[in-house]
Sequence to fold (276 residues):
Amino acid sequence: MNPPYSPNRYWTEIADEYSRAEDDGLAPVLHPNVPDWYNQTIDAMQFSAVLRALDVAKIEKGSRILDVGCGTGRWLRRYERLGYQATGLDLTLGMLSLARKNRTQSPLVGGESSRLPFKDSSFDAVSDITVVQHQLPASQPQAISEMLRVIKPGGRLILMELIRGKGGHIFPMPPGEWIHNTTMFGAVLLEWFGQEFMFLDRAFVKLARLVASDDRSETNDLQKHAHSQSCPQPVARELFWRVRHITASLSAQIDPTASLVFPARLATHGVFIFGK
Fold:
């Protein structure tokens, strides 16, 4: 029986797995054990969304910004280049070590998002990029409350969080719940938009899962022996990612248009910009 989900244990294991890896620091904070190109595609899309959110938030250069759940430091490095005074906070020392290894110059602090080790009104802005979605639902409102506590009056909070999906370590909420769980602490929603529609890619992944499920069902029904299976897993995986390279790349190109045509609630993530 697997132990219950623990964010600390989960992220510590991820950080340990990549502690000796020479990469761009994306796999530990996006999708472990996938081709590099896929994480680079998702990262580029998220960066575009963060730039849009920063434009809506109108955060001036030189402002102090806290990146909660900074992971390997990918946003800290970008905030530095954009002219902000960034500080990174993460739950696990392993992630902070990877952030320093990936050449961020920003201060790094260990701590929990639900108990931020900072005084009230310490920052002009706080960013939370796919962090609270990994916390158990009971602790999510407390984390949001803490982020608002450390923001100065008139400051900004940027959340990018899952609004659909499921998994053992992700706990999405519909857009209305993200908004409610933030505005109930006195924040004001300035704008929100959908991020990562990826319709073609999502359709392919769903189809691939259905085919895999049918294959497993047929195998069980006929009680086939393992040695009789004609498609070794590595071959199936390579084929899957070859096709997905096409569907994901096309989806990423189409996404800017999709965001103008389709309701934001159909996206995978919501990007929420709040004022305090």
The domain at 7-197+262-275 is CATH 3.40.50.150 (Rossmann fold). Strands lie at 64-68, 85-90, 108-110, 123-129, 151-162, 188-195, 269-275. The chain is about 45% helix and 15% strand. Helices lie at 7-17, 36-57, 74-82, 93-101, 140-149, 175-183, 199-222, 233-261.
